[in-house]
Amino acid sequence: MATYRLKTERPRARGLDLARDLNPEQRAMVEAPPGPLLVLAGAGTGKTRALTYRVARLVASGCPPERIMLVTFTNRAASEMLRRVEALAGVTMRACLAGTFHHVGHRIVRRYAERLGRLPTFGILDRDDAVTLMGAALSEVAKAEKATRRLPQPRALVALAGLVAGTRRSLDQVVAERMPNLLGELPRIEAVLARYDERKRALSVCDFDDLLVLWRELLTDPAHADAAAELRAAVDHVLVDEYQDVNTLQGALCDHMAEGCGSLTCVGDDAQSIYGFRGADFSMIRDFPRRHPDARILELTTNYRSTPQILALANRSLRRNEDQHRKDLRAVRGPGMTPAVIPLRDVYQQAEFVAQRLLEIHQDLQVPLRDMAVLYRNHNHSLELQVELGRRNVPFYVRSGARFFEQAHVKDVVSFLRARENPADVLAWTRLLRLWPGIGARTAERLAETIARRPDTPAHAAAAARAHARKLREPGRGSLLAFADLWERLCDPSRRDPGTAIRTVVEGHYAAYARTAFANPDQRAEDLEHLAAFASDTGSAAEFLAQVALVSGVGAEVATAAHDPDDKLVLSSIHQAKGLEWRAVFVLWLVDGRFPGRPALRTREALEEERRLFYVAATRAKDELYLCFPTLEEGRDGPHRILRPSRFLTEIDHPPAVFERWQIEEVPLDEP
Predict the structure, then answer these.
(1) What is the pLDDT of residue 555?
(2) What SS3 state is found at 306?
(3) Would you give the distance in Å from CA 281 to the centre of its chain?
(4) Domain end (from 489, 516, 550)
(5) Same-domain pairing of 54 and 193
(6) DSSP-based three-state secondary structure for 237
(7) Residues 421, 510 within the same domain
(8) Long-range pairs for 651-659: beta carbons < 8 A, 24 or more residues apart
(9) Rounded mean pLDDT of 214-225?
(10) What residues contact 132, with CB distance under 8 A and at least 6 apart?
């Protein structure tokens, strides 16, 4: 028999030198014996490194990679971790059951598909496909019941179904909490979700939530006891990263998978549990010792990221929380700048300060723009800053999200002003007409073209809509009549102010539309009120629309303003910034009612999650931290009102000082 030598790249073991590579806290985690283990890993403490070494040590000690289950919150993180394990242990990790919950669930459900009543060749719906299929189910139910009232949009229903699955709560409980205005529509919503499930089975497809629900069914249904035993017996160690972000279903899966081996390592930071709105269950990390009475609890508190001054502020803030595993971060780095709290006159001065100060850091200290970030609670908090950055030709990008003016709800409402100011804008007419129940794409396009033929008379749109309504059945007929009434109000001279016009659209129609179109209608409403206030300050509607157009296109135009085409300032919500770090961080709108937001003031649990969000924002900063807030806000129907500094600032304002207050002095532009 002939032998052919295949040249393949095998990992070369660098070797595990725990004393050299790890601090005592990390080493204790790596060397902890098998069993239930909760590692409370603070921000910037090297938890990924420690978790990687724990996996490498298990493999180096003789555990086959295929008997390890490693769950992370991105597949990229899992791949990077396994690559580093290979470099440390010299063992190929391809057989390791590693990846996101959905990735691992897919491998398991695919293996046991027939037992679970699915074809082995089942397909997987991505989010867009799930929305499309949910839309089809919605149409079928509405047609069968001859419904005239608007139900939630397909995307909102997909999110609702995901919350039901992830929180393991009933549909009526989730609707009561997230969409209370739809409690009267529960039977129809149940019918749509049931039809959606029927369609998935008929098409032999699963959505992302099904992968986890079926995985749990396999582990808990007595009918699958033999398969569950086989599955548990195949795993010797279960390790979970970012444990503070798991939902109820994911936490249960971790516990179930570890029942056979007893080796469960969960690494996370309860101080960074900030995704309750997505269904993350804080009780999973809080109550871990209660569910596992023999568990070991270890801490990683040695911080390699931030200066002692920044950590002193973050630690003091978090001590206010009652519901937590108490710990303080300790800095490795030497002393640096004391965090600055900056009261500004209004949102415009706030934007001017941030733009000027970051340019000073960029030019005087040679800090690249990409090493600085502006963080905020909600995307609408960056509206004025985006305009100011565009005015100063500062390149920026919004992390993991559309720029404020490019968000769907903002573009929807702005389309009404575009159509009013330029009645020949067929695209604007088409967009705004699609926002009404019973108005499909073809009807919207035909009516838009009819209206646009008479651009000299904007009010003509109301008459055209009423004439077209006679050709339609309900609910389209009623929608066009309601649109005609709204349009006449919008064209009234008393509503020429763009802010007033925006509020007219929101109150007359869009608020009701948002409650069925989005899973977070309250946040969208807050965005639109912020937009209205900004529009009123801008001047005329034409000036406002010009600002919108210029800011929307500023990214491509000003990218050459920096020496490095990729050197752009980062704008990000704090939620999107978790896990990242920058040399200088600015936090905006630290005002009670904005950060913390008004809904968070209702319960202690919500306020404590909001305080954890402030902690996450502060601990993103390595060298410099600027905490900004406006002191005055233009009243909607009257004079300015005074804003109260965030309680997250006032409650830490006691000796010894953890921040210094900066006083703003305005000087002429040409003064050095």
Answers:
(1) 41
(2) coil
(3) 16
(4) 550
(5) no
(6) strand
(7) yes
(8) 651/317, 651/320, 652/313, 652/316, 652/317, 652/320, 657/338, 658/309, 658/312, 658/313, 658/316, 658/338, 658/339, 659/313, 659/338, 659/339, 659/340, 659/341, 659/627
(9) 95
(10) 154
pLDDT tens-place string over residues 117-137: 888 888 888 887 888 889 889
Cα 482 to chain centroid, rounded? 35
Residue 62 lies inside a defined structural domain of this protein: yes
- What DSSP designation does 653 have? -
Which domain covers residue 537, as residue numbers?
406-550
CA 623 to chain centre: 26
This prediction has a pTM of 0.82
Please give the span between the terminal C-alpha atoms of the chain, in angstroms, as a whole number. Answer: 85
Pick from 302, 327, 358: which residue ends a domain?
A: 302
Quick one: how far is CA 304 from the chain centroid? Answer: 26
Asked if 658 and 313 touch (Cβ cutoff 8 Å), the reply is yes
Cα–Cα nearest to 448, from 488, 497, 415? 415
Q: What is the pLDDT of residues 43-64, one digit of tens each?
A: 999 999 999 999 999 999 999 9
Q: Is residue 100 located within the same domain as residue 231? A: yes
Residue 672 has pLDDT above 70, yes or no: no
Under a CB-based contact definition with an 8 Å cutoff, are residues 354 and 389 in contact? no
Amino acid at 189: I
Give per-residue burial for 133-156: e unless 16+ CB within 10 Å, then b: bbbebbebbbeeeebeebbbbbbb
Instruction: Rounding to the nearest 10 degrees, give the CA dihedral for residues 646, 652, 658, 661.
Output: 40
Q: How far apart are CA 269 and CA 321, in angstroms?
A: 14
Q: Are residues 428 and 511 in the same domain?
A: yes
pLDDT tens profile 165-211: 999 999 999 999 888 878 888 999 999 999 999 988 888 888 989 99
Indicate if 231 and 273 belong to the same structural domain: yes
Residue 209: inside a domain:
no
CATH code of the domain in which 439 resides: 1.10.486.10
Q: At residue 359, does pLDDT exceed 80?
A: yes
